[in-house]
Amino acid sequence: MDSVSVFFLAQGEQSAASVMDRLVTFIRGATRSLDFAVYDMRLSDPLKATLSAALRERAAAGVEIRICFDGDKPLTPNLAAGQDPAPAGTSACVQSLGYSWKKIAGMKLMHNKFVVRDGASIWTGSTNLTDDAFTLMENNIVIIDSKVLAGYYVEEFEQLWQRENFDNTGNIRTMVTPVTFGGQPGDARVMFSPGCGQEIDAEIARRVRESKRRVRICSLLINSGTLISELGNLLGRGNVNVDGIYDRTQMADVYKQWQEVPSNRWKIPALREIVTRANLAGKNSTPYTPTSIHDFMHNKVLVIDDTVITGSYNFSRSAEFNAENILFIDSASLAETYSAYIDHLIQKYR
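RE: above sequence
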């Protein structure tokens, strides 16, 4: 049966080389193809040398390598028009590797972080390919061996590759697929935005609304109005435990943005009440600039009863319109594994 494995990153708890070694192990399993969809790839010379050597080895063995990435955004993005800031350097890094590449345009972000190997295995999660992501951020990486699930990622990649723009991509009708984690059975489904952005938002809300025991948050941002409303309602019911961790510094910037938009101002007291009532832990990260260190609590995870929701998809309005992927994995054993990681981060940053 198809299988899932996962590993977790936390600031100061692993070396960049150890994360790259895991990626290289995944790459070296390729016999036919490697398709990368990356938002941010900026690597120091040692990490880049390790990656380059692995790719050269696979290319010499006849593996086709393609890389698509977020099209370069202006240094001063038009935030009012919906453009988000993105660090410079990905384009130069990707092109220097020497394989087929395409910039993926769009008003928002090509925010995926996945690699498809031989159309049969996927490396995905929240982790960008940067030194900071490997060493300073909290992230999770999911590896799935499944031809069915990988086929959906291939379809997403091909849409991006052929169109060179993520508008009108991601409307992929996916099905629940049986998987195992640690030898225990479960189910997984992947969804993609922007095509299924509203459906993803609605599915997250439904699962929160129908939760029976727990909703655990481990997320950079909590700024989806739908999610905020459902969490508030859940706390009002009082029969489901809600807790977790978020990035306090990055959300402070979101509060400022909400204050400037009258239709979003209601979110400020609503989310502050959720943070207080759920006693959410917050990481104090470095305020964002393109050139600052990036040490965010960068996960995008919800554990709802025995379901794990994770991927590149932030729980935000913008994510509906970005190119994103999100996994819904129903597995009691995986949910407990993620829950233990959340406990660790809460203890670390409380």
